[in-house]
Amino acid sequence: MGTTLFFLIGVLLVTDSAWTQSVRQPYDVYEPEDWSVHDFSCPSECFCPPSFPTALYCENRGLKEIPAIPSRIWYLYLENNLIETIPEKPLVNATQLRWINLNKNKITNYGIERGALSQLKKLLFLFLEDNELEEVPSPLPRSLEQLQLARNKVSRIPQGTFSNLENLTLLDLQHNKLLDSAFQRDTFKGLKNLMQLNMAKNALRSMPPRLPANTMQLFLDNNSIEGIPENYFNVIPKVAFLRLNHNKISDAGLPSRGFDASSILDLQLSHNRLTKFPRISARLQHLHLDHNKIKSVNVTMICPTPTTLHAEQDVFLHGPQLSYLRLDGNEIKPPIPMDLMTCFKLLQAVIV
């Protein structure tokens, strides 16, 4: 038991390590050493901290336009203003930009001049949350690693939008107006290194098609998804975290093998329409099934079974290795069998 537990903890640590090492953190970039070639001017509308010469703070100032950005700037903060457009001219000298935060403005697709963003050849992080976008902006720089578009009005993804974004690791499209019709089979083509995809709080009825093979985190909460196609996870063999809370998934909507053949470590299916406990993988660690209509649970489906090959050998555990389980809000009625209750206690399961 101890050996198995340490192995599973190791799997989680390796997975977490791989994720944090692969997705660059916001300030995980190197400062230039030679400042003699850079302009140290500061737009009058903004603040340039002497101790942080690569940053330009222009947030919360009621700005309606982007000021001219000096060439030395790496980090540009323009959030919570009244900006409606992104023209090319004020960014023409900003060749060192790595980070732009334009959250909480009034930017529309028509207001983004073609080439304004794609000219920023070193840009890594682009934040455009809480704006007025109706489609994913394009073209974008090939260097981009994170694209944050939450809480817009996005309902369209033009063909070829992601075709050159092979460095993108995180795409956040949550809380938009995406329908199933927004996706083609090649919509995500080009996203060779995408690891996290968030499309929660949209209007999807089906799972998005042909996701990038390296996807590790897939968040689809608060849609109207009714089922998961057969062999869906064959295309995304590395997915480890899957969230499908608050959808309309029924027993008939699950693949015949359930999640038995997947690589998922954390599976969330809360607030759906399940009446049966789904088949799960032996690798699964965290399982959220609360607020469904499940009436009974077979102990062999959630707890490992100890077996021995020979009397003198160690005990091996076969079957699920869950460490967390939620079943509250279902229709499981007492009395609960003793072996199942023992299993629940071992898992510290939430059942009521």
From TrEMBL:
Describe the location of the LRRNT domain by residue ranges: 41-75
Tell me the Gene3D superfamilies matching this sequence.
Ribonuclease Inhibitor (3.80.10.10)
Q: Does the keyword Signal apply?
A: yes
Cellular location of this protein? Answer: Secreted, Extracellular space, Extracellular matrix
Sorted alphabetically, the Gene Ontology cellular component annotations on this record are: extracellular space
Xref: SMART domains: LRR_BAC, LRR_TYP, LRRNT
Which keywords fit this entry according to its UniProt record?
Disulfide bond, Extracellular matrix, Glycoprotein, Leucine-rich repeat, Proteoglycan, Repeat, Secreted, Signal
Biological process, per Gene Ontology: cornea development in camera-type eye
SUPFAM superfamilies under this entry?
Answer: L domain-like
Q: Does the keyword Iron apply?
A: no
Major localization listed first in the record, in broad terms: secreted
According to the UniProt entry, where is the signal peptide? 1-20
Q: Which family does it belong to?
A: Belongs to the small leucine-rich proteoglycan (SLRP) family. SLRP class II subfamily.
Q: What is the official name of this protein in its record? A: Keratocan
Query: What organism is the protein native to?
Result: Chinchilla lanigera (Long-tailed chinchilla)
